[in-house]
Amino acid sequence: MSTDIKSDQEVDTKRRRFLVTSTSVVAAVGAGFVAVPFLSSWMPSERAKNAGAPVDVDISKLEEGRLLVVEWQSKPVWILKRSPKTLSDLPKIDDLLRDPSSENADQQPAYAQNENRSIKPEILVLVGICTHLGCSPTFRPEIGSVDLGADWLGGFFCPCHSSRFDLAGRVFQGVPAPTNLVVPPHKYVSDNVIVVGVDGEAA
Length: 203
Hints:
CATH architecture of the largest domain: 3-layer Sandwich
Number of domains: 2
Low-confidence stretches: 33-45
Oligomer: single chain
Order of helices and strands: HHEEEHEEEEEE
Strand content: 15-25%
Helix content: 25-40%
Largest sheet: 3 strands, antiparallel
Mean pLDDT: 84
């Protein structure tokens, strides 16, 4: 009788160990399946990694008067090739602008704080976000537009609250936008390639 009881106790003990071990293994595997996506969520996605990375832009095929749009830090960046006439027209509307000399240093890097707001006079690089409430203005290159006035020599118009900017991204007086459009850090690595997101004046 005592032998049978001892035998039953050994079986129960073995069964208990087996159940505890099995439960532990299943729990560990389950925790692993839960932990992997949880830990993966801490890792930035490829898109997030690239969001702040510099962007190479080939402007070799950019025609005069045309606007090229690229994305940097999840923002639209405009690259405009201006004509000699556009450049000569810029000073004509200085009296209509809030900050014609771009004196606010937060609006552009030091190398773009000039009459053209650019490294190369003909190539303008701007962040395409209105400095009022963050809408994206539209490109309005036409001169003397009926809805924008006879003094309009081309520029950018924000449809959200009617802020206006010239073809150097300078803001007009009397509109909601408080400052000029931002010139992002950028540099030329060759005559036809601009890197947006890196400071520098030339190749």
